[in-house]
Write a structure and sequence with these properties.
Layout (H helix, E strand, L loop, with lengths): L12 E6 L2 E6 L3 E5 L15 E7 L2 E7 H4 L13 E5 L4 E5 L1 E6 L10 E2 L2 H12 L26
Parallel strand pairs: 2-9, 5-7
Antiparallel strand pairs: 1-2, 1-8, 3-6, 4-5, 6-7
């Protein structure tokens, strides 16, 4: 039986635009793509590119503007096209101007959009939160409690 999609044609990366430039992220590192919530709770002691935190189906997610994180100027784009890309295994989403599709295989050297990785993005966030300091691992999924807090009993 012939496969519906040839192995070399299977999508391997999600393509998107941020700050007027094209980027790709490996599909296994993409947890979900959603419309970014219009309201986000401010995260204390943070500044741009942090947009804030949101509750997405019971999980607290930090929203970070990708263009600002990469030191790129914000592009004048249609806000209706913006998307938040949840990074698999983390409690962080990058907000991009637009998701443009998928790519397959490896691009020619110096050709096509810049390839990003979750580990690089998390390292950039850590450097913003703790300039000159050690990375503290703020955004791994396991850093968010999965159970209700316990309170001391009133005796």
């Amino acid at each position: 039986m012939t496969p519906l999609v040839e192995e070399q044609d299977r999508p391997t990366h999600l393509r998107f635009v941020a700050g007027g430039a094209g980027f790709e992220l490996p599909l296994p590192e993409v947890g979900e793509v959603v419309v970014p919530p219009s309201l986000a709770a401010r995260i204390p002691r943070t500044r741009a590119p942090f947009r804030g935190a949101v509750n997405l189906r019971g999980k607290v997610i930090a929203l970070v503007e990708l263009a600002g994180l990469l030191g790129r100027p914000a592009a004048a784009t249609d806000p209706a096209l913006a998307r938040a890309i949840l990074l698999e295994g983390t409690a962080m989403a990058i907000v991009v101007d637009e998701v443009t599709g998928f790519s397959a295989g490896e691009p020619a050297e110096g050709d096509g959009p810049e390839r990003l990785s979750t580990s690089d993005l998390l390292a950039r966030v850590e450097r913003l939160l703790h300039p000159g300091g050690a990375a503290l691992g703020h955004f791994p999924a396991h850093s968010i409690p999965s159970q209700e807090p316990t309170w001391p009993s009133a005796s």
